[in-house]
Amino acid sequence: MMNRWPVVKRLLPLLAGMALLLSACGREDLSALNPQGPVAQEQLGIMKLSITIMVLVVVVVFAIAIYVLFRFRRKPGDQTIPKQVEGNHKLEIIWTVIPLILLVILGVPTIQSVFGLAQDYSKDENAIQIKVTAHQYWWEFEYPDHGITTAQEMIIPTNAVISIEAQSADVIHSFWIPSLAGKIDTNPGGNVNNMYFEATKPGVYLGKCAELCGPSHAYMDFKVKAVDDASFERWVTAMKEPATLPEDAAIAETFTSQCLTCHAIGDKGLQGLYPNLTGMGSREAVAGFLLNTDDPKYKNEGSVYDNLVRWIKDPEAVKPGNQMPKVDLSDEEIEAIAKYLSEQKLDY
User: Fold this and answer.
1) Which fold would CATH assign to domain 128-239?
2) Which segments cross the bilayer (predicted)?
């Protein structure tokens, strides 16, 4: 028999390299395998159970196949036919009952989890109610019990049940926070889907649209920022504070006529049509995915001011297919508005 070990030795470095390469794919904050709340933890438990059963089945089947391959392989000159087991009632019962047992082991906790996680908290007074509306290509978050509407960044208190009512203003999208919960579709036409989740510790969790919805689907990100109860109350108060327009009267007039005809900031502007700009300088991102940070290690990504200038100057180039028009403003006006927005920070 030909010695295959030299071939295997040559393939091992290649396989090891591929394993290292694939292990670097993805992000820790965009992984359902890194649960940060009880809902995500329960979903991961179901995944682990199903994967364990599948691996067990694969190992047993392959072990039997390999055993049969070598134990009953035909040898030169050997015309003996192995004992046939067709019609063996005992074996047929065994390989029928075992899969049924495995299905029960997997099915019972899966059904319990599916129905348990489908619990509706929309009428629960102790839950934080948030109405999510998906737009091409941004997210709107309304807190009806607090009288607040914001965009792109959902602020929640830790260790509180967050009840979501999700729908779409245009096409089908999908609301997904991998570290906190599974995904639900957001449908147009007033078709509302419900879900809930909980964050057990403070942090920023990345959310995505998980349904292909147009040319900028990949840029339809949002952030969930979990804070302590006191910080959440301060944020609610800060969101309701009256807005202060730019000190320069000309820039204030330009901002009012060019921006507040579609957007809102504080108590000024058009509420509920396009993203609310209140606290723009405090957000984790500009346009949902451009970094909003002055951290030197992200210097190539641009600061909030740089990314605001880039976004206001040519929204189509940043996020193709979005509905924000290119404004007829000079570079100086754009830079002044970007500077004003970058300074709108909420203290919470």
Assistant:
1) Immunoglobulin-like (2.60.40)
2) 51-70, 91-111
User: How is domain 249-342 classified at the CATH fold level?
Assistant: Immunoglobulin-like (2.60.40)
Averaged pLDDT for residues 102-112:
92
Q: What is the DSSP string of 180-196?
A: T--EEEE-STT--EEEE
Give how far the C-alpha of residue 283 lies from the chain's centroid of Cα atoms, to the nearest Å: 17
Domain ranges in the chain are: 128-239, 249-342
Burial of 144 (C-beta count, 10 Å sphere; 0-12/13-18/19+): exposed
Task: Concatenate the DSSP letters of all residues of 275-330 into one string.
Answer: -B-TTGGGSSEETTTEE----GGGGGG--HHHHHHHHHH-HHHHSTT-SPPPP---
CA trace torsion 297, 299, 301, 304 (10° rounding): 110
pLDDT tens by residue, 179-210: 999 899 999 988 999 999 999 999 999 999 99
Q: DSSP class of residue 25? A: S
